[in-house]
Amino acid sequence: MTISAAFFLSPNGHLVHVPQNHISTVIAEPENFGLTREEIEALYREYGERVGVEGKARREILLKIIADGWIRIRRYPNKYWSVTAASLIPLVQDRLREWAGKMLAGINGFKESDRYMPVKVSTASGESLCTIGDLAEGTCPR
Q1: Residue from 68, 69, 41, 71 nearest 57 by CA
Q2: What is the pTM of this model?
Q3: How do the domains of the chain map onto residue ranges?
Q4: Which residues pair with 74 in a beta bridge?
Q5: C-alpha–C-alpha distance, residues 29 and 35, integer Å
Q6: Could you name the domain of life of the organism this protein comes from (predicted)?
Q7: Which residues in the chain belong to E strands, given as ranges?
Q8: Cβ neighbours of residue 38 under 8 Å, at least 6 residues apart?
Q9: For 36-81, what is each residue's pLDDT tens digit?
């Protein structure tokens, strides 16, 4: 089965479904992410990009909200989960463990049926790899 899914995990642990792509979710409701529409438009202007394009402005915006405690999550069909977080402090590890458990149990119409699906966790200090099952059990990342 080819399943794609995307989410943000808020700093307080709230799961936000991303229907299309992460930047369009931020642009649709910037205040939820601690931004304003004006800030977003200014960044796109600075890079000479049209608002919503997945280029340099998008990268800067996503890195800013990740630095503010948001976690970006995407499942690439039949490949792996990609998780981007600022760091792997214990609070982030707890949030990821909770998220993985929800995905395996099923939430909001989505259920990860393969507990061995790889999860690539990327932070400023590097990348770690484990399975969503190990993540749910709290045995990774370290």
Answers
A1: 41
A2: 0.93
A3: 5-137
A4: 6, 82
A5: 9
A6: Bacteria
A7: 5-9, 15-17, 71-76, 80-84, 118-123, 126-131
A8: none
A9: 999 999 999 999 999 999 999 999 999 999 999 999 999 998 899 9
